[in-house]
From TrEMBL, chains A, B:
Domain CoA-binding, residue spans: 82-182
Binding site for NAD(+): G92, A93, G94, N95, I96, G97
Protein name stated in the entry: Redox-sensing transcriptional repressor Rex
Function of the protein: Modulates transcription in response to changes in cellular NADH/NAD(+) redox state.
Protein species of origin: Anaeromicrobium sediminis
Location relative to the cell: Cytoplasm
NCBIfam families: PRK05472.1-3, PRK05472.1-4, PRK05472.2-2, PRK05472.2-3, PRK05472.2-4, PRK05472.2-5
Length: 215, 215
């Protein structure tokens, strides 16, 4: 972390996509103005929490008038960097890799997968939608030449660190990791890991302990 | 939340799968004893945090001897409820649903998908591995008759709440939700949601703000 900037806590940052999602849903329902109290009711945070969170970014809304939903939605999108588009590559064309490649909503949000990479020769040369599956040996060169911003790792945990190393050496800015392992990357690279099994095992814990309470 | 039980904080619960994952990796490397200091180094929590976390469950390890890796791994597995097996169903045979159905590691951990459900007639009757894709209209009856514990929702956000309602009415105990929406379920049902886009947008935020710092 660097000095000279106001640091926003990760807890606040992780709430921003949720605000944006609820605001999208309001726009879908043609609701264009909302009080922090009403927003609080649907999103489940207190009104004071919402005001505090948004004050981190200069504050929005007018006393007594509430928030302009469209403005707030667009402002949070900008804060999240969703007014940019990013070139991404997916490494690993297995189940999760294919699901991400097929999921067009990420592309609509500005995260365009330009290629996939695989070590399995049976998959190399195939396409998922218009995304070509290339030989994993070409990953480093491709990242450099095509100015790729984000690498999405969907390999086994055994291969994931090697893939991350190639990405880092080739100048990647961010890694979105689905391999069930904690990767080591230098501080200038942003790493975000989705641990699906941790989520499932948390569910399992809560199920078990609910059952014990009921016994 | 109910009375009469020691409440473990969600933060501790969410760390348990991570402990178990690191302990698995140690076993893979044939390491059978580890001090809290060494464990701290590889897992990235302080030694005192580790001792505190594990003390919630009665404590493990002996002063000066460290932890028996196998015992601790198995104890955490039990705490997480991974010594049970669970019958699961997957609703939605799109990208994520198919990826979950194909991902055999969850099945090995005791979460066995016994059927998938779809509204798309082109998919009904097909199989993913040995898991049949059935008509979504049969979901409620199936959950009741087959004693299904966990429902995995991989539908669009528009359909997800209706699916959750059917699951709840049919006696489901837990829901693992991949639809990008916050579902409403009664308190006796455990809900765990994986918000993939929130993870990606957090990555995007961190990328954008890192870039600004560097400018």
């Amino acid at each position: 972390m660097q000095k000279g900037n106001t640091r926003i806590s990760m807890a606040v940052i992780r709430r921003l996509p949720k605000y944006r999602r609820y605001l999208s849903e309001l726009l879908d329902k043609d609701i264009h103005r909302i009080s922090s109290k009403e927003l609080s009711k649907i999103i489940g945070f207190t009104a004071s929490q919402i005001r505090q969170d948004l004050n981190n970014f200069g504050g929005f809304g007018q006393q007594g008038y509430g928030y302009n939903v469209e403005e707030l939605h667009s402002a949070i999108g900008k804060i999240l960097g969703l007014d940019h588009s990013y070139n991404t590559v997916i490494v690993g064309a297995g189940n999760i890799g294919q699901a991400i490649a097929n999921y067009t909503n990420f592309e609509k949000a500005g995260f365009k997968p330009t290629a996939m990479f695989e070590i399995n020769p049976k998959l190399i040369g195939l396409k998922i939608r218009d995304i070509e599956i290339m030989d994993a040996d070409l990953l480093g060169t491709y990242i450099k030449e095509k100015n790729i911003n984000i690498g999405i790792i969907c390999t086994s945990k055994e291969k994931a660190q090697d893939v991350a190393n190639v990405m880092v050496e080739s100048g990647i800015q961010g890694i979105w990791n689905f391999a069930p392992t904690d990767l080591q990357v230098p501080e200038h690279v942003v790493l975000e890991t989705v641990h699906l099994s941790e989520s499932l095992y948390t569910l399992s814990y809560l199920l078990k302990h609910k059952r014990e309470e009921e016994d």
